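Fold this sequence, please.
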Amino acid sequence: MEGKWRLIVVAATIALVLSVWAAYVVYPLVQHHDEYSYYRSEVTQIRIDGDEDLTSANGVVSGVGSQSDPYVISFPESDHYNQMTIEISNTTQSFVLRDSIFTYSYLSGCIAVSETGIRISSATDFSVEDNEGSCSVNGCDDFTLCGNLMSADIADCSNYALCHNRGGTFSSTRCADFSARENINLTLTLESCRNSSIIDNLFERGTIAIGNSSDCLVDSNRCQSITVDAGSADCLITNNSVLNNALSMGRGVFLDCVHDVTIDRNMIDNCSYSAIELGDSVTNCTISRNNISNCYGGISLRDASGCVVYHNNIFSSFWSGGHMLTDPLDSEYHAGGVLDEQGWLNSWDNGYPDGGNYYFDYNGLDMYSGQLQDTLGGDGIGDTPLVIYTYLAGTPAEDHYPLMAPYCG
């Protein structure tokens, strides 16, 4: 009898659990699916294929298609609840896509899916301004994306500009002759690009990543990190503020598998790992006139050769005698938080009298001057070289002319 009641209690419990699961899980999902299915069925899809489709029926509100008076395409009544997409291709006349919201989201099973709202391909001489949504541009020339709240994927394009956009990720692949200026809180990615300028952007929560690209200028940006890798060459990284990369292994500026890259006049602060790091297969790069503070490491050269490091100011580093390690005789002591695994293959000064770098915890004296530091009278350069830490066998590198005060040139 007791076993029978136990079975009844178990069956009742299972029935109760199933009813609660159906009420609070299955029914809301079905309702949500129906809601998104409604939106999907009601989505407005604008298709412009060729100049002949640039008509009022497809959103043209003004203009004649010339450079001085382009067609203006706008949907001022668009919003987040009435979904809309637009696809424009094979046009040669000038147009501006302006002041519209393009979104397309639905449920596939229980997974939310977002489609690209704006698709433009094989077009020239156009502008996308003050829109909201996601965008893809393929095989286009002579255009601007300006003032939008969006993410964008750009491929096989040339001669374009990105300006005053906000939020999201902007990626450029196999592109040439373009600029990104005064954008806010983006993550910017370049892959297989050439002749690009990334200037005056405010990416406080974003990053700049450049891969397999050449002739890139990264100037006067504010961001969390800058990465140049995958065969990139002939790039200049200058006047940037690289701040607050608290991620694990968070580097300020990181080069990997590149050559002929210059890192000059940047301010790098509060990184959880190296302020500047050169990784694998890095050759003929210059690191100069950077100000480094509050990073775990200062400057690290891993598999690098033919590189020159000079006139950098390392004001603090947690990977040095100034903080975690207090005894300069300790085998793990890293003056200035600097490291060079290849030793004599790189130079840590620019010769005499230019000198080397400023290390906040260098404790040498300045009583002599001259190339050999053997002439009585100080010259602002330490009398004893600073040995650059390496944990590999071989001859370590030296900064032959460490600076006694921060470089100000």
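DSSP finds one helix and 40 strands in the chain. Confidence is low (pLDDT under 50) at residues 24-41, 321-333.
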